[in-house]
Amino acid sequence: MMVVMAGNDNELLGYADEEYKERYGFSDKTEYTYKTEKGLSENVVREISKVKGEPDWMLEKRLTGYKVFKNKPVPTWGADLSGIDFDDVYYYLKPTGKKEDAWEKVPEDIKKTFDKLGIPEAERKFFAGAEIQYDSEVVYGHVREELDKQGVIFTDTDSAIKKYPELVKKYFGTVIPASDNKFAALNTAVFSGGSFIYVPKGVKVAMPLQAYFRINAEKAGQFERTLIVADEGSDVTYIEGCLPADELVSRGDTFQRIDTIKEGDAVPTHTGGTQKVNKKFIHLHKGTMLEIMPLSKGNSFKLTGEHPVLCVKRKNVLEKRKPRKNWKPEVSTMSLLSIDPEFVKAENLEEGDFIVYVAPKLTKNDPQFDETTLKILGLYLAEGSVSSNKALHGIKSVSFSFGKSKKESLLANEVNLLIHEKGFKSSVCRSKGGYYIVSSYAKELVALCEDNCGKGAKTKLLSEKIMKLPALKQKILIDYYWKGDGNIYHRYGKDMLRASTASRFLAYQIQEILARNGIFANLNIRRGGFDTILGRKIERSDQYIIEYTEGKKIGEVRKKGNTFFVPIKQIKKYEFNDLVYNFSVNKDESYLVKGFAVHNCTAPIYMSSSLHSAVVEIIVHKDAHVRYVTIQNWSRNVYNLVTQRAFAYENAHMEWIDANIGSKVNMKYPSVYLKERGAKGEILSVAVAGENQVQDSGGKMLHLAPDTTSKIISKSVSKKNGVSSYRGQLYVAKNASNVKSTVRCDALLLSKESKTNTYPYMDIKTDDATITHEAVVGKIGDEQLFYLMSRGLTEEEALTTIVLGFIDPLTKALPMEYSLELKRLIKLDTSNSVA
Fold first, then answer.
1. Which conformational region is residue 320 in: left (phi greater than 0), alpha (psi within -120 to 50 degrees), or beta?
2. Which of 146, 158, 339, 600 is most buried, by the most CB atoms less than 10 A from its CB?
């Protein structure tokens, strides 16, 4: 289960970046159907309950919460909360008359707000369950049919009170009563919205259950109430679809590993145009990974089952005739080309379905590249290299090497003439072995070849200038590349052109250029290895083989505009346990993986509010498992005061994964009460305290039964005058024998003025408990920076590398774009960040 929270006021979200403010720091004019007066009173509490049409028993709970809130003082043992003005807050704002179950029914102004936040309607189609809260009310709710069939209840808390009163009454306030603390009492009195989840016995929920919260009005608080009940043997998890680190994403001019894509980078989308990356996401995926192998096997790509792929389902375009032997039923070309492809989850793809290869629409003519120049560069790609002559003090030369045949001699003479035509000097000679070699020491020619095509066989790559040329000019280069390195063979009644290269990226570039010229090329890979030649062991590199036929189709591949529909030959599944990557893209929300169009997946959006005081209650029954992830990045004027607690019963397993990045003051200590034998609790916590921030976080583990285990791992980073504190409690009751618990707190200081504190509290009432506690504080020294900078990193890159290394064990468990979030949020001030 993951809850992603968002809000907004008119202040910048802790960034100096105006683009970020424009994108996220907005508030829309909304006509509220109901708004209470500012400030809190018994009348306001009664008014909220009346507007919601609640039963008397819930009103009584609210009034009890209000009384406790009035009587309890503001805590003084943690961060300074004296800046909160409880009388200057709107406690209830109702933006619409009712919650809708269809997105098209949601008021237009609210839909536009969520579109601005980057939660596109197309993306919402892939949620198993989704709740969207706008100010005090949930305005949209949708639960997939699969969850209904399993008996899973996933709705907003207000609806649950009316539809499932017995369940809510049984559990509400039993884990966190109003008397627990002042802010739990405040939430009890004025809560609105939040999520209610009930998972029946034995049901495993392996689909996304998500909630988006948006506070649009200034001086409005957020007081959602979440209640999760996992019955015996059930399992609630969160899954987000992404790609493994080594998958190649098209940049239009080249292909780049997805893990190296940065926010702000431009990428081609399924339309063929380019858009900028908004936000990048990284999380740990443990489970099934799919490998989609199209007809062109070299374009195989891997992704999680939830990741949508642009596709035409084969069953929708079938011909009415008998299928061919050893292949799927034949398709109607007319039907295939007339249907619009749709994004389909990878797990719903089948062999024979058509996925969509897109040729990017990039054109920028450069007069430097005339026909003669492009012919030279084509032959250089095939047969050329740049080397330095030690005898001539390292002077570089460019060489073209050809075979012994008459055809090869004609090519050598042709390239020599082309070089002379450009005004450069060159010569043709024959080696002792009879090979033809064309050489030139002309600096301009060396630079032309090296800058636009690279210099080694494995590292050859076409420049951005070449990749943005008009398609017909690119074709001249490709034709001469084929002239030098290609061959023709006859297959399936067609003349096939084939060439191979040791450069992986060049192979994909050539395929893309051919696609822009209306030709789909097959790409296959011949894996390298070792051969023994004349007694010597020789290593062979991987070879990327490109083949196509001019003016004829390959197999069932069909062209439509700037796209090609390519059938899937095979889908493989395997187990995966590592980081996966994804990103949100402006407008189109899609990008190309090895040329094939995929949609982005769920994108958490963060905004701001003035006061956030939520309550999360979780009941984990016997043998059940709940994993709850909270990712919060609030504005620097937000007081984030949250109470989170779980009860874990016999052999139950509760996990809190807690990331605190933004806010002015954060006080949050998720806890687990291990109430019966064999229960297990885990808390993984990350806090980043920047300028003028106080991150007061940690966790609590209460061992109330024998054979219970727990683990708390907390990591914090402080920079400038930021203060991070770990505040934890470990309690072992007298009857809780054979308890095992580990607590580890690590803190990293980036500035002389940054601070960190540790406040562990342990109360162990048995003699046989195994308890370990470790706390480490570190600073970044000049020696560490010098070491990394001596290896080519800037000071800012060196600092970021150290920080990411420090939190690495936790980032692998966090389902979010943590390394990117750190780079953006920390914004290291290198002039004063080093102690």
1. beta
2. 600
Give the integer Cα–Cα distance in Å for 804 and 790.
19
Burial track 115-126 (b if 16+ CB lie within 10 A, e otherwise): eebbbbeebbeb
How far from 340 is each of 122, 208, 334, 337, 516, CA to CA, in Å?
Answer: 15, 27, 12, 8, 20
Helix or strand run (H / E) with residue 780: none
Residue 23 has pLDDT above 90, yes or no: no
pTM of the model: 0.56
Q: Which residue has the higher pLDDT, 29 or 598?
A: 598
Q: ∠ CA(229), CA(232), CA(238), 5° rounding? A: 55
For tokens 């914090």, name the residue.
716
Residue with tokens 């939520």: 614
Can you tell me the mean pLDDT for 121-140? 43
Could you tell me if 110 and 94 are in contact, meaning their C-beta atoms sit under 8 angstroms apart? Answer: no
Mean pLDDT of 89-109: 58
What's the Cα-to-Cα distance from 835 to each of 2, 719, 720, 745, 781, rounded to whole Å? 37, 10, 10, 21, 7
The two structure tokens encoding residue 417: 């003439």
End-to-end CA, the chain = 39
Type of residue at 366: D
Buried b (16+ CB within 10 A) or exposed e, 783-817: ebbeebeeeeeebeebbbebbeebbeebbebbbbb
For residue 70, what are the contacts with CB-CB under 8 A and spacing of at least 6? none
Residue 684, H or E segment:
strand 680-689
Determine the length of the chain.
835
Taken in order of first residue, the domains within the chain and their CATH numbers are 1-219 (no CATH), 249-361+562-599 (2.170.16.10), 371-560 (3.10.28.10), 780-835 (no CATH)
Using the structure block, give the residue that is written with the tokens 């460019």: 398
Amino acid at 158: D
